[in-house]
Amino acid sequence: MRLGTGGVCLGYGNPYRIAEDARLASYLFPDRLDLGLAQGLPYPPALLSALRGGGAGGSEPPGSFAARAEAVHQYVTGRLPGGHPLAGTELHLDPGPPVWILGTSPASARLAARLGAGFCISLHHRPELEGARAAIAEYGAAFAPSPEFPEPATIAVVSGVCAETAAAAEAAAARIAAQAGDGGTVPAAALSFVGDPAACAEKLTDLAGRLAVDELMILDFLTESWPLRLRMYELLAKALGLQPAA
Question: Measured between alpha carbons, how far is 77 from 84 in angstroms, rounded to an integer?
């Protein structure tokens, strides 16, 4: 079973510290970790500085997401450019885990392609299918191979509800939408699939084909019941013909 971050928000931490934490985790779980990097919410500068350890009056420049992602990638892989202050420094751990850029736009796709990283696009945060297809195509066209990714690698994040029956799934989706109306973050439009196992399997298979991605990542919001969440994945796995790894 692989482990991974669903998106370390680079706006909130020091790139070097993020990279060192990832390298340590990769050492503890060799060949099992993926490092996802995301931009994060645009918090006020004083709060961002405090989150990065500089205190409310800290002066660390925020930098763009692309610049911070590139810095993390350099530290994780150990491939520092000439003239970098740490170039030539001995690495006490092997290079860290594969890096994935998480995003919703062509700009994120181009960044992932330039770094030779994996690209993970979230239909949960931006459900427009055509925009996602365009970003994935741009990533593939501009991709620069790297030791971690000799070829492009893509994941699409989709959210939804699968239950024993369509009625049960629709009821759960209605509860999720109601929670969103009370200040939650799950509008009904963000749910890519709702239904029984056969309908959800058909929808997911169609989505994967239309997006031309290597993997789908399922994001669920059945927080009311842990057994219900597990059952959802069991139903999806069975409907899609997935088998446990040996």
Answer: 14
Contact 80, 87 (CB under 8 A): yes
Orientation angle between helical segments 106-115 and 65-77, nearest 10 degrees: 20
pLDDT digits 0-9 by tens, 70-126: 999 999 998 888 888 777 777 777 788 999 999 989 999 999 999 999 999 999 888
- Three-state DSSP at 193 gives strand
Return the structure tokens found at 75.
């530290």
- What domains can you pick out in the chain, each with its CATH number? 1-97 (no CATH), 103-246 (3.20.20.30)
Residue with tokens 């058909």: 202
What pTM does this model have?
0.85
Alpha helices in 120-196 (DSSP H): 129-142, 166-181
Q: Nearest Cα to 107, choosing from 64, 74, 147? A: 64
Over 50: is that where the pLDDT of 56 sits?
Answer: no
Q: Tell me the pLDDT band of 146, cut-offs 50, 70 and 90.
A: very high
Going by their DSSP bridges, the two strands 33-38 and 99-103 should be labelled as parallel
Phi, psi of 48 (to 5 degrees): -60, -40
In whole angstroms, give the CA distance from residue 223 to residue 114: 37
Rounded-to-integer distance, Cα 82 and Cα 90, Å = 15
